[in-house]
């Protein structure tokens, strides 16, 4: 299992990768820049390339996460332009760091006409990717249903990818907390897996945000809980994390860090639980 966590880039990209490995991770996620704004970062390409080199040597997989204000459904043209420029910047950084992609939320639209909202999302995706030559993909993340049900179903994710001009540059990131909170996943992983397979979702799934949920299935509230300390529960999470379909994917913890300000303890606890409960092959 390629378990890891979100890590800070306070000391740079290579140091972030080293921290990820030091706490027992086999994968990690980072914010390529300040997560609270859309400003463009003039990053240090040497640091980024050292990160890529280190990850290669250590067989670490990484993903980047776009800043919080990266709303693909932003209707205001100036804001949409800022989102596009910021995501292009994120993709460049991710490419230099050797990451497989940049996670971006599906988007929240204020349009009364939902179709108009989906059109804006498609336009934004097309603008971001029109001249993108790199390997890093945009990884669209399913939402928890807070405020809007937009972006909570496999159908929408698969459709938006298909309708985009460059679907080959788009993949998915599945957040387990959001899937549960939105009511997409009610605990029976087998039936959800079957549905995703029928829709072709898993072919393009590249990462898991591995979070338990403070709130119950269908409550539409996005609050991550540590492994087994939320409403999804260990048994359901075990079923998901041992699915052969997900075996090679990075599993990223986006929960609160422990007393040492890292995810070391949670990574260890999950590995131990997996060892004790995995059915012998
Ligand atoms: Zn997430």
Mind explaining what this structure looks like?
The structure is a single chain. The protein is built from 9 helices and 10 strands. It has 281 residues and is of the alpha/beta class. The chain has one domain (2-277): Divalent-metal-dependent TIM barrel enzymes (TIM Barrel), CATH 3.20.20.150. The strands form 2 sheets. The chain has an 8-stranded parallel barrel. The protein is globular, with a radius of gyration of 18 Å. The structure holds zinc ion (ZN). Residues 141, 175, 209, 254 line the site of zinc ion. Zinc ion binds next to loops.
* Amino-to-carboxy terminus distance: 15 Å
Uncertain regions spanning at least 5 consecutive residues: none
Radius of gyration over all CA atoms, rounded: 18 Å
Helix content: 25-40%
Order of helices and strands: EHEHEHEHEHEHHEEEHEH
Largest sheet: 8 strands, parallel, barrel
Given the structure, what is the number of helices?
9
Can you tell me the overall shape?
globular
CATH A-level architecture: Alpha-Beta Barrel
Strand order of the largest sheet: 1-2-3-4-5-6-7-10
Overall mean confidence score, pLDDT: 96
Beta fraction: 15-25%
């Amino acid at each position: 299992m390629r378990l890891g966590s979100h890590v800070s880039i306070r000391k740079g990209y290579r140091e972030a990768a080293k921290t990820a490995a030091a706490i027992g991770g086999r994968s990690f996620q980072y914010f390529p820049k300040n997560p609270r704004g859309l400003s463009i970062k003039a990053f240090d390409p040497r640091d980024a390339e050292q990160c890529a080199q280190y990850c290669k040597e250590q067989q670490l997989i990484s993903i980047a996460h776009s800043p919080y204000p990266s709303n693909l459904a932003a209707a205001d043209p100036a804001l949409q332009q800022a989102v596009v420029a910021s995501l292009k910047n994120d993709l460049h950084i991710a490419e230099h760091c050797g990451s497989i992609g940049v996670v971006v939320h599906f988007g929240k639209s204020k349009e009364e006409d939902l179709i108009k909202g989906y059109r804006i999302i498609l336009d934004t995706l097309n603008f971001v990717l029109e001249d993108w030559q790199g390997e890093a993909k945009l990884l669209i993340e399913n939402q928890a249903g807070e405020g809007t049900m937009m972006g909570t179903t496999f159908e929408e994710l698969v459709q938006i990818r298909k309708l985009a001009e460059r679907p080959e540059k788009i993949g998915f990131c599945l957040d387990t907390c959001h899937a549960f909170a939105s009511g997409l996943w009610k605990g029976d992983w087998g039936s959800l897996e079957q549905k995703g397979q029928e829709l072709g979702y898993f072919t393009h799934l590249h990462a898991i945000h591995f979070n338990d949920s403070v709130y119950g299935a269908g409550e539409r509230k996005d609050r991550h809980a540590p492994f087994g300390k939320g409403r999804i529960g260990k048994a359901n999470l075990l079923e998901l994390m041992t699915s052969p379909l997900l075996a090679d994917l990075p599993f990223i913890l986006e929960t609160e860090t422990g007393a040492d300000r890292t995810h070391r303890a949670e990574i260890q606890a999950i590995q131990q639980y997996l060892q004790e409960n995995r059915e012998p092959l």
